[in-house]
UniProtKB/TrEMBL annotation:
InterPro entries: Ureohydrolase_dom_sf (IPR023696). This is Uncharacterized protein.
Length: 64
């Protein structure tokens, strides 16, 4: 994703991110989520930021 401060060529796909997050979100020990790398200033059109927000919301809503 180009809208991050530290790009990694072989980073996570959204499906892999969801696979990692779902068990954490289901856990009673999860109390919050902090997103620290997404930088909307690096995404002037908002394309990547909107897709990221959509995917994170889908993951969170899937475990309710």
């Amino acid at each position: 994703m180009p809208a991050v401060d530290s790009r990694t060529p072989d980073g996570l796909w959204y499906s892999e991110l969801s696979e990692l997050l779902e068990p954490l979100l289901i856990s009673d020990k999860a109390t919050g989520l902090q997103i620290t790398i997404l930088d909307p200033d690096l995404d002037p059109s908002g394309y990547y930021t909107k897709e990221f927000v959509k995917r994170i919301c889908e993951t969170i809503n899937s475990v309710k």
